[in-house]
Amino acid sequence: MANPSLLILAGDGIGPEVMAEVKKIIGWYETRRGITFDVSEGLVGGCSYDAHGTPLTDVVMAQAQAVDAVLLGAVGGPKYDKLDFSLKPERGLLRLRKEMDLFSNLRPAQCFDALADFSSLKKEVVAGLDIVIVRELTSGVYFGEPRGIFVEGNERVGINTQRYTESEIARVARSAFELARKRSNKVCSMEKANVMESGVLWREVVQEVHDKEYPDVELSHMYADAGAMQLCRWPKQFDVIVTDNLFGDLLSDMAAMLTGSLGMLPSASLGLPMANGRPKALYEPVHGSAPDIAGTGKANPIACILSFAMALRYSFSLGDEATRVEKAVEQVLADGARTADLMGPEGGTPISTSQMGDAVVAALTASLKAA
Ligand code: IPM
Ligand code: MG
Questions:
Q1: Is the pTM of this model over 0.90?
Q2: Which residue ranges of the chain lie beneath pLDDT 70?
Q3: 1-108+264-371: which CATH topology?
Q4: What superfamily in CATH does domain 130-258 come from?
Q5: Scanning 25, 26, 126, 134, which has its CA 20 to 30 A from the CA of 161?
Q6: Annotated active-site positions, please?
Q7: Residues with CB under 5 A from ligand 2 (ion)
């Protein structure tokens, strides 16, 4: 059988630095586990704009469509702030999501025991937290038409459109229910049905899919603003949250911060199954390109490493290996390894991005001896 194929798009800012650590792990799999990935690389975001005048070339788009999984670092930076909207680094990422039809974005927010003190919330509120936000990723106000800045009378008006079809809502709802069945069988759906028609439809369709196909799953509905409040108050009441593109963007940043560090959290964006049965997939850290620390060795590579672990699980059917990587990360944190973002008020000496990657590789090797 052909080796699993992986397209690496490291992107901008800290993207290439954190990706360098994932490459160490890919190398480890080849030498220590005999699992070889066919790795190719390409440009996305500002670096692609610099080289080709576009945040994503058609060539890279076609490569992304052809591989088993895409692993992306981060895109964007202040250098590109003044660019026309269509040329901004973010458009490269949005094009990948849209053209690969990656409608289901899984954003786990998990609190590592060793880091429970880092949350801005009390330890008992976050210790052991393990929830997943399923964010709709290819529609809603991010893509709805009409959009633009128009002139009306003697002033400008900015327009974006929140638009959802039944089938778009139904398919992301299904992916949330499927995930829930593998976890605690519980889904909370969030929208603003009190003010938005798209929210009314969202609530109805999620309920219909539930009643027809997933009656065994416990389903609740919440207005997204109340959901944000409840996430802060007692996040452990949730297990799987399903929500739209924009609310999911906000709620997932908030859920991420509950766990203490945005630098720790991975994500998977999944689409429909390809001919080989694997879902179209792109994996990326939840954090951004952090241009302020790019090149300083301060970035935490764990979110990107855990994104690779998600690829092992969801694209390559290597769930045990995904668990091995996750356990290795837990181990290095328990042993006290801390990058700069994980320095508590008591201070200490942080290790570099590269040292963190080495520590994870060493823990992987130790996992073989322990077995
Ligand atoms: C995210 C980011 C993106 C988004 C940006 C970079 C386009 O914030 O993945 O959450 O808004 O979706
Ligand atoms: Mg975001």
A1: yes
A2: 1, 345
A3: Isopropylmalate Dehydrogenase (3.40.718)
A4: Isopropylmalate Dehydrogenase (3.40.718.10)
A5: 134
A6: 142, 192, 225, 249, 253
A7: 249
